Amino acid sequence: MDNDTAALLARHSEALDLFSARVHAVGPDQWDAPTPCAEWSVRDLVNHLTAEQLWVPELVTRGADPEAVGDAYDGDVLGADPVAAWDAAAAGAREAFVAEGATARTVVLSYGETPAVAYCAQMTADAVVHAWDLSRAIGVPDRLPARLVDFALAEVTPYADDLAGTGLFAPPVEPPPGDSAQSRLLAVLGRRG
Asked: In the chain, which stretches have pLDDT less than 50?
């Protein structure tokens, strides 16, 4: 494994740990609380990230494509114990990406074939940004680790202009004066930090 791949896997693991810490901090009365993601509650947000993690072993380990997986991870994947569901899904995704030869594979995503390392980078950035969303929603400190912010900003910047067109992201906003890397990351993804 080369140094770039090792660094990517380290960032992926750190991003999962960051989001996991936020999931474990959700209070019993906060699952229905709103988040910075329009129309998503805390439970919806955690459900989204959990479903994303459930896809990883399917695509990376089993070599499935979206058509084969179908709607297996649509709807509620959290069940009665959202924290346990997240923990299990995150562990499965982590295991899939670190498996021997996993990062050398090509996966089939909804938009076509993609190197597994690019998929891992996208998943990492997504977990970082949604950790901020979840932090805001449950009222815990929302300062993200600089190394993860820098990684996510470098990952999303090249295709940031295309994200708003997907309907899944708000249009970019102007970052505040004297902006930090975190505020630039949030702004490019339509969030105000």
From this structure: none
